[in-house]
Amino acid sequence: MESDPDTQSAAAVLPVLTEQPAPGTAEGPLQVRNLEAEDIDFVARMLVEAFRDKFEFAVGKSRIEAAIQQQASSLSRSPNIWHRYYVALYEGKLAGAMCIVFYGDSADEGSQCCDSQLGYYGSTRLWCVHCCLDNSDMRRGECYIDRICVDAGYRGKGIGKAMLDKAESEAREHGSTLMSLWVKQTNRAVHLYERQGYNISMNCCWPCTWFAVGNARWYQMEKQL
């Protein structure tokens, strides 16, 4: 799932306005690396703030901080999945986050959605989204971009593209031949994905996700490597 720049709060993946050197190169200010323990609070906040409109619909404004704490707690308890999480740094400052999943990976313990702090309805709604947009039917050789988001203060600096490039590089190294993701149909990030070589492979309407997060229409997008 991707961040939604239509109503996005603190984070969004927007069309890239400028090109930057490849992540991690000495010439440029951009780096993309694996999650480390000190990044957890930033990543947890990003994963909620980037989808704030959806979380507010699901759990209510009063439980946003609880949702952030739940994300941080889940990540802290699951160091075995940190190698699938990445952070982007711009001039040394945390600017984005991404999670990818490969075919055959074990369940993402960090994505638990049932939590007493979120309330019964909030937990149920997040569970509905998890069921519809999960990666349980991944195909052999597939790499799924579970979440990707860029801090609002760093839009237009090529960070979204850099993280997509990193995901594809990791996928090739892993032997994957297909990239996939889900995106809200009205999200402007669709154009970024198309420029990156992704095509719409499925047009879905799920009433259950409207009940959960206020949106029923999604694209599945894919790219052959």
Instruction: Estimate the helix proportion, in percent.
Output: 25-40%
Q: What gap, in angstroms, lies between the N and C termini? A: 20 Å
Q: How is the main sheet built?
A: 7 strands, mixed
Contiguous runs where pLDDT drops below 50 for at least 5 residues: 5-26
Helix-strand makeup class: alpha+beta
The string of secondary-structure elements, in order, is EHHHEEHEHEHEHE
The share of residues in extended strands comes to 15-25%
Strand segment tally: 7
Return the CATH architecture: 3-Layer(aba) Sandwich
Strand order of the largest sheet: 1-2-3-4-5-7-6
Number of distinct helices:
7
Taken together, the total number of domains comes to 1
CATH names the topology as Aminopeptidase
CATH superfamily: Gcn5-related N-acetyltransferase (GNAT)
- CATH secondary-structure class: Alpha Beta
Radius of gyration: 16 Å
